[in-house]
Each structure stands twice: as C-alpha cells, then as structure tokens.
Design goal:
six-stranded mixed sheet; 7 helices; alpha/beta; binds glyceraldehyde-3-phosphate
C-alpha cells in the first residue's frame, strides 16, 4: 500500500501573529523546521518513487525549497479562503465582528467566511485535489496547510465531516498515512 506523507508548512510569520490567511513567508522557527524536514526526507523517503506536492502559497513552497525538494503545485491545496477576514487576527475578528466570530464558533463546519469558504467548501475542493493524487504508482508527500490537512486526513481515514474543523494537526510534525494507519513524528 502506497504511503501519503503530510506536513504543514513550517511556522509562518502569520502563525506567529495569530493572523488568518495571508500569503506570507516562514518565521525563523519555520525555516529551522524546513531544514529538519530536508534531513527527514533524505533519511526516510525513497525520493525517486515519491511525488512531492505543495499548495500554490509562499509558505508551502518555501518549506519545500528549504527541504531540498522540487514539488508540483496544486492550488486546490491552498489554505481555506478567509475572504474579507484574510489578514486579520483572530482577536481582531472577535472584537470587530463579534457575531461572525460567534457564528463560526457555533458551527465551524458550515460557517462560511464573508466572500470566502467554509470547511464544507474546503472538503469539496480538497476532494478534487485528492483525485489528482496518484495513489497507485508512487508515494505522495504533501506540504500543505492546517485546514487542508484536516480535510484530507478525514477523507482518507473516512472520518465524519463534523470531526474535521477541530482536528489537531501539530506544526513541525510529519504525518504518515498508510491504509487506515496514521503516525506522527515531531521533528522540532
Ligand atoms: O488560517 C487557517 C488555519 O490554519 C485554520 O485554522 O480553521 O482552526 O481557524 P481554523
């Protein structure tokens, strides 16, 4: 059975400031993780028979570049679109748009950001991305985003949609999925 590896991008500048979305680059800690990811790949991955894929966003591409791999890009793997709230911090949303903040807290799966996406939307988009992943002929190594990883893992393991928005996807950790087995290896 082919293996699917999933890693979030290294910590980004936005993660540090608790900002939603954006298209920023990595923090110093994110850079350090990416280098460790490069060591992990060199020591554990059969790179000849592995397809590396990132989203189209700067932080996933920078992670792959620093890890020394040249990936394909798939914009269906881009992070959930926060629409009008892209670039705001969670605290700002809570303070300036309290009813939106509460609505998302009450039903994170169905809540759609103004002019953006919901997790239900994202599940649809990531299903498309998954269809384009070759599970037959090679292993796949995806460098992606938290919300996208939640969706993909739920789809692959057959979890119910209501589990998706709260799933824990640790930063700086390689997640390995083979059949129904999932393992986590923290690198930093
Ligand atoms: O910026 C997007 C985050 O990775 C997703 O986090 O859906 O838990 O707010 P959230």
């Amino acid at each position: 059975e082919k293996i699917v590896y999933i890693s979030r991008h290294g910590q980004s500048e936005m993660n540090v400031k608790d900002i939603i979305g954006g298209n920023g680059y990595l923090s110093p800690s994110g850079v350090e993780y990416s280098e460790k990811l490069g060591d992990y790949i060199a020591n554990n991955i059969d790179t000849e028979n592995t397809r590396f894929v990132t989203s189209s966003m700067n932080r996933t591409r920078q992670t792959a570049m620093l890890a020394g791999v040249s990936p394909e890009q798939n914009e269906d793997l881009d992070e959930i679109d926060a629409g009008d709230f892209d670039g705001l911090s969670y605290g700002e949303v809570k303070c300036r748009f309290p009813s939106e903040y509460e609505a998302r807290k009450d039903d994170k799966l169905n809540y759609r950001y103004p002019n953006g996406e919901s997790y239900v939307d994202l599940l649809k988009r990531t299903r498309l991305a998954l269809n384009s992943v070759d599970f037959e002929n090679c292993d796949n190594f995806l460098i992606i985003h938290q919300a996208v990883a939640r969706c993909l893992i739920a789809i692959m393991l057959g979890l119910s949609d209501d589990k998706v928005p709260q799933m824990e996807i640790p930063l700086h950790t390689v997640i390995k999925i083979q059949g129904s087995e999932i393992t986590y290896q923290k690198l930093l």
